[in-house]
């Protein structure tokens, strides 16, 4: 029997809710975590048509990229589409979960999927976030060092870019004396004890600190584990907005744009003046990405693929880069496949249905 919390716990281990932007409203929007799940429908948006599809397919849990509740609701009637969605979902006992900017902000999320569709390699976060890392320092007996560190690594500690199991270690002497309520692993109550210990320092994503501490305490032989945590202002290369990468080989600009239309299934591309004969380095951002234009230029991208550019913002390309606005829906619709693939790999005996509803509110003649 699968419950909502089983699915959401997995999703939040992959794209932690703490990584969503302050304006966002990701998470379980309707339903109870303990509710049983029989059929899951994956959609980009929540609309009345999607809820009707859930009813028709007997799906009792919808996982969407975009939340449909952003602001506080003072009343729920039937005059607005959000009201009607809420009422229909509740009446039909359908739970709804959104995984939005937290999925945008991880390196294996929305932008990685777009990079795969475009054919990019050597990808990295376009605008990495600061202040999402902590340094954990722990002291342990020399002979227990590997056991404790491996447990911490498995829980998410010690990763730096393309390297894992990263730590800094110093050996020294640790001293302690247990009181009458203690149960020391080494030595006796009321007696001073000296032990050869290793001081280990590792980087930990702040959102994983509790998991790492639990693993550390479980593996550590001491009754009381000496450790401390320091928040860092370092840039975290694994978390942030957008992505940048390289084509396997340079492509003529017009040929690249035509291939982009095909790979992303586009009806139209709005773009600025073609100021590059060839495209090699590509910046991307699913959804509204105009805020990343300066980062794309600073990292010498030839083209920036995103959506929702306003008229005057196109001028900011300043003939330093090509802006390709492919549409919000079009840039993120493959997020459905991303979610389905991830969930299917983790829940191998459960089927996850992709919504067939075209939720794009923008139409073209």
TrEMBL record:
Keywords: Metal-binding
Name of the protein: GTP cyclohydrolase 1 type 2 homolog
Subunit structure of this chain's protein: Homohexamer.
Family: Belongs to the GTP cyclohydrolase I type 2/NIF3 family.
Positions of a divalent metal cation binding: 65-66, 104, 328, 332
Gene Ontology cellular-component annotations: cytoplasm
Entries under InterPro entries matching the protein: DUF34/NIF3, DUF34/NIF3_bac, DUF34/NIF3_sf, N-reg_PII/ATP_PRibTrfase_C
GO molecular function: metal ion binding
Keyword Oxidoreductase in annotation: no
Pfam families reported for this sequence: DUF34_NIF3 (PF01784)
Keyword field contains Secreted: no
Organism annotation: Ekhidna lutea
Domain of life: Bacteria
């Amino acid at each position: 029997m699968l419950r909502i919390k089983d699915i959401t716990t997995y999703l939040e281990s992959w794209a932690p809710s703490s990584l969503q932007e302050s304006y966002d409203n990701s998470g379980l929007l309707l339903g109870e975590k303990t509710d049983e799940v029989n059929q899951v429908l994956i959609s980009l948006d929540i609309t009345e048509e999607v809820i009707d599809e859930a009813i028709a397919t007997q799906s009792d849990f919808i996982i969407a990229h975009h939340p449909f509740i952003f602001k506080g609701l003072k009343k729920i009637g039937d005059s607005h589409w959000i009201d009607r969605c809420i009422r229909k979902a509740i009446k039909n006992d359908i739970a709804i979960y959104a995984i939005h900017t937290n999925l945008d902000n991880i390196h294996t999320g929305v932008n990685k999927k777009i990079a795969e569709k475009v054919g990019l390699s050597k990808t990295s976060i376009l605008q990495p976030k600061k202040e999402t890392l902590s340094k954990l320092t722990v002291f342990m007996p020399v002979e227990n060092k590997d056991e404790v560190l491996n447990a911490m690594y498995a829980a998410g500690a010690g990763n730096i870019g393309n390297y894992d199991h990263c730590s800094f270690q110093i050996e020294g002497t640790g001293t302690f004396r247990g009181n009458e309520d203690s149960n020391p692993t080494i030595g006796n109550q009321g007696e001073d004890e000296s032990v050869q210990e290793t001081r280990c320092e590792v980087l930990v994503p702040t959102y994983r600190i509790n998991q790492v501490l639990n693993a550390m305490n479980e593996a550590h032989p001491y009754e009381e584990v000496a450790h401390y945590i320091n928040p860092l202002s370092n840039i975290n290369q694994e978390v942030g907005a957008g992505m940048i990468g390289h084509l396997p080989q340079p492509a003529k600009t017009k040929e690249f744009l035509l291939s982009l239309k095909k790979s992303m299934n586009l009806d139209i591309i709005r773009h600025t003046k073609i100021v590059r004969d060839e495209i090699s380095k590509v910046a991307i951002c699913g959804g509204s990405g105009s805020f990343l234009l300066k980062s794309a230029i600073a990292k010498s991208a030839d083209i920036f693929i995103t959506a929702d550019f306003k008229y005057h913002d196109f001028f900011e390309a300043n003939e330093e880069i090509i802006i390709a606005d492919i549409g919000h829906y079009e840039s993120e619709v493959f997020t459905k496949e991303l979610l389905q693939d991830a969930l299917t790999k983790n829940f191998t005996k459960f089927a996850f249905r992709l919504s067939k509803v075209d939720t794009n509110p923008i139409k073209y003649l």
